[in-house]
């Protein structure tokens, strides 16, 4: 009887895992809204953005920050978008409503699909920490989020011959971590030489 229940639970658990895997697949397929709105020919996906952020986090050289936590946080920070999509400010949805939708999605993922396991609690905790933006790690990853976006904008300006100044203007002066600030300053200089 016990083996039969274990098999049933295993199938049920795998069904939930499979749904979770499909949500992650949505991150691979869903193009970032801002780039679509600017008619970029081959816009990056949400997971493209998350992956490069994770790689950038690996370059952290600050003993005051937990690098592993930053990498994990970058990996999960947009996980809810696998359900709710990439909601951009241009869509007119309030920050509160966006947060409500994403919180609901994360609770579905972590509590229902992943069964409130230790792993799902870690995912939810990392996401919540990022959303709250109060710890040094969350602030660093938020800097990476903005930096990765302007880095991508710079690349699209070159490849698609578009003026994406809006992305640079909305983030100007909003970077805090010295490493990311140094990257931003260098990127501004490169962009200046490209546009002059």
From TrEMBL:
Its EC number is 3.1.3.89. It is an enzyme of class 3 (hydrolase). Its cofactor is Mn(2+); Mg(2+); Co(2+). Pfam families: HD_3. InterPro entries: HD/PDEase_dom, HD_domain, YfbR/HDDC2. It catalyses: a 2'-deoxyribonucleoside 5'-phosphate + H2O = a 2'-deoxyribonucleoside + phosphate. One of its GO terms (cellular component) is cytoplasm. Keywords: Hydrolase, Magnesium, Metal-binding. Catalyzes the dephosphorylation of the nucleoside 5'-monophosphates deoxyadenosine monophosphate (dAMP), deoxycytidine monophosphate (dCMP), deoxyguanosine monophosphate (dGMP) and deoxythymidine monophosphate (dTMP). Homodimer. This is 5'-deoxynucleotidase.
